[in-house]
Specification:
By secondary structure, this protein is an alpha+beta fold. The chain has 2 domains: about 25-80, no CATH class; about 85-115, no CATH class. The chain has helices at about 15, 35-45, 50-60, 100-110; strands at about 30-35, 70-80, 90, 95-100. The longest helix has 12 residues, at about 50-60. It is elongated.
Length: about 120
């Protein structure tokens, strides 16, 4: 039994016409560093902002054609709050008062409510 190896001329032409796409094994990762919670929220919703601009610049630097789309991993760390979040109900002289209503009523009376 003779085994014949196919030469380049007898090999199927389909593999030469459609070369396999050059796929990147490791997906691209963009690290945005520490960001504010508000900016991170805008980025998640897809709204324009600082992080969206940073991300578009980073994505523009990544080599790739539309046929060879590369997944893009975005990493960031949300900065912790410097001050605790203000509560809506405030204990003022032994009474629980709605902070926003109290603040607006003080403004109406001409008092500057900066302590609330």
């Amino acid at each position: 039994m003779d085994t014949v190896t196919p030469s380049a001329e007898t090999a199927p032409a389909a593999s030469a016409a459609n070369p396999s796409p050059n796929v990147q094994s490791n997906p691209a990762t963009v690290n945005l560093g520490k960001v504010k919670a508000k900016d991170a929220k805008k980025l998640k919703k897809g709204k324009a902002g600082k992080l969206t601009n940073k991300l578009s610049q980073a994505a523009g630097q990544i080599q790739g054609t539309p046929e060879n789309a590369v997944p893009l991993y975005i990493t960031y760390e949300v900065k912790p709050r410097k001050k605790p979040k203000k509560k809506n109900k405030v204990n003022f002289m032994g009474l629980k008062i709605d902070r926003k209503k109290f603040k607006s009523s003080m403004k109406d009376k001409g008092i500057n409510p900066t302590f609330l």
